[in-house]
TrEMBL record:
One of its GO terms (molecular function) is dTDP-4-dehydrorhamnose 3,5-epimerase activity. The active site is at residues 63, 132. Belongs to the dTDP-4-dehydrorhamnose 3,5-epimerase family. The keyword Isomerase applies. This is dTDP-4-dehydrorhamnose 3,5-epimerase. GO terms for biological process: dTDP-rhamnose biosynthetic process; polysaccharide biosynthetic process. One of its GO terms (cellular component) is cytosol. The keyword Isomerase applies. Pfam families: dTDP_sugar_isom (PF00908). The lineage of its organism: Bacteria, Bacillati, Actinomycetota, Actinomycetes, Kitasatosporales.
């Protein structure tokens, strides 16, 4: 497994496993504490694992947490997703940068998203399972959502949106979220 820095988002990493394939399929390690530790992250800091299953075109996000934020490891374990990270840490050298990735069950790559970054994804296959490993217990009172189609972000979502939650559909603009954070 190798770890690669994500240049567009300071502190973000892409962890790429080494698959071992044969006639049965493949095997790969999707988490390695030593590799995580080698880039300065504490592997023991992650306290919850979650899984979502999405149909083709479903869009989830853009989500982040208020307060101390939430760091997460995200991996598409089955299918394929278009994954997006937006750096919203005012003191970051990559503040307001947007980075996108294709995560898939074929590669099993894991994306580390630092606390203070917004995250969202769109399913690119009939079914896509996305795993999250987060560093704090989830508290719905801290949930923040930003409009996925905010023109200031200009995210090039690859497919028409087939479904999304009411919260995501009614999310405020990035400008409004930033204004609310300052108040």
């Amino acid at each position: 497994m190798k770890a690669t820095e994500v240049p567009a988002i300071a502190g973000a990493y892409l962890f790429e496993p080494t698959p071992h394939a044969d006639e049965r399929g493949f095997f790969c390690r999707t988490f390695d504490a030593d590799v995580v530790r080698s880039v300065g992250l504490d592997p023991a800091a992650f306290v919850q694992d979650s899984l979502s299953r999405s149909a083709l075109g479903v869009l989830r996000g853009l989500h982040l947490r208020s307060g101390a934020g939430e760091a997460k490891l995200v991996r598409c374990s089955y299918g394929k997703v278009f994954d997006v990270v937006v750096d919203l840490r005012a003191d970051s050298p990559t503040y307001r940068n947007v980075a996108s990735f294709e995560l898939s069950g074929e590669t099993q790559a894991t994306l580390y998203i630092p606390a203070g970054c917004a995250h969202g994804f769109q399913a690119l296959t009939e079914s896509a399972d996305t795993s999250y490993r987060i560093d704090r217990p989830h508290d719905p009172a801290e949930d923040v959502t930003i409009a996925f189609d905010d023109p200031d972000l200009a995210i090039p979502w690859p497919l028409p949106v087939t479904s999304m939650s009411r919260r995501d559909r009614e999310a405020p603009s990035l400008a409004q979220v930033l204004k609310n954070r300052e108040s």
